[in-house]
Design goal:
Layout: H1 3-14, E1 20-25, E2 28-33, E3 55-60, E4 64-69, E5 76-80, E6 85-88, E7 104-105, E8 110-116, E9 119-124, E10 129-134, E11 141-142, E12 147-152
Antiparallel strand pairs: 1-2, 3-4, 4-5, 5-12, 6-8, 6-11, 7-10, 8-9, 10-12
């Protein structure tokens, strides 16, 4: 196989949907692999508006959905997971958690990290308040739209 043939195969592969090609000819092996563009999942998520028996207090960008519960004794803002991934309560193994029940938080404070596709996504508080409930444990898998925290304003 000569240079022109290889160059032609690369051009054809570049213009096609193929992502991998392997050719073996007379003891010569040619492997061509095209890497896919990776788009962070958080940039593609759109939070739908879902009718629930709660009053929506705040719709925050397309990343985090926050609702205010108005029924019963449990009052506060619920912070939901914007993506599917692994929940981390601390910045590193063995480190102190970002927040604990009873901690006061300010808008912009990091509440946790959710790892999705090897990308660490910091989830921040969207308002000032006190952490009154944490719904998940460290290193637990979370689903899209799963409640993470309750913050009392």
């Amino acid at each position: 196989m000569d240079y022109k043939e290889i160059e032609h195969l690369m051009k054809v592969m570049n213009e096609s949907q193929l992502t991998e090609l392997e050719i073996e000819k007379e003891g010569f092996v040619l492997k061509i692999k095209k890497e896919k563009e990776i788009v962070p999942i958080a940039s593609r998520i759109e939070t739908p508006i879902i009718e629930r028996p709660v009053e929506i207090q705040n719709q925050i960008s397309t990343d985090i959905k926050v609702e205010k519960e108005v029924s019963g004794e449990k009052e506060g803002i619920i912070v939901y997971s914007p993506i599917v991934g692994t929940f981390y309560s601390a910045p590193a193994p063995g480190a102190e958690p970002f927040v604990k029940v009873g901690d006061k938080v300010k808008k912009g404070d990091v509440l946790c990290i959710i790892e999705a596709m090897k990308i660490m996504n910091e989830i921040e508080a969207e308002s000032d308040g006190e952490i009154v409930e944490i719904f998940v444990k460290n290193e637990e898998m979370v689903e899209y739209n799963q409640p993470l925290f309750r913050i009392k304003a």
